[in-house]
Amino acid sequence: MLQRIVDKPGNIDLDVTYFSQIDNQFNPHGSCNVTSIAMCLWSLGIRGNGSQPQLEDQLYQACEYKGLDRHSAQDLKKLVELFPDCHDDFTEHGTLDDIRMAISAGKPCIVHGYFTRSGHIIVIRGFDKTGFIVNDPYGEYFAKGYDTCVSGKRLHYSTDLIARVCSPESVNNPKHIWLHRIWRNQ
């Protein structure tokens, strides 16, 4: 289980390492998927095999070598599970409460959303009464787009924002969030 760095009543923040996708060797503007997975795996003690200086670049290459589509949620699950004792409980029908329960259990989450036209993936590492604490590999999201010159580490995205971009067809009661809950056997 990951260390909680904030644990006040109603607030939980897991100690999830931050990586930016902007400095990735491969496809820095389109590798949010492997970068988000790398953040979770690194935080769970996975360091990779050293074939690339960054774990996210190793994951990118692993997708190519293993014939995995990094745009497929099911293939991202397979990518996580290539590593010993690592698991990805994936659902296409996630809810905001599912995210909160996973975080409470020490499992960082990865969500897919329409932060960009082509879609984007971020890590949710915590929550409070008004929203979620995220590691966004592309920088900071605003309604008009991204500021990629700032760190996306430990940002606060409102509950409304996550609902709107991750489950737009059921924004008032989000129940279609593509949600990965990442964990490792201890």
From TrEMBL:
Protein name, UniProt field: Peptidase C39-like domain-containing protein
Organism listed in the record: Adonisia turfae CCMR0081
Cite the Gene3D superfamilies for this sequence: Cysteine proteinases
Which InterPro entries does its entry note?
Answer: Peptidase_C39-like (IPR039564)
Query: Domain Peptidase C39-like: where?
Result: 14-138
A Pfam family cross-referenced in the UniProt record is: Peptidase_C39_2
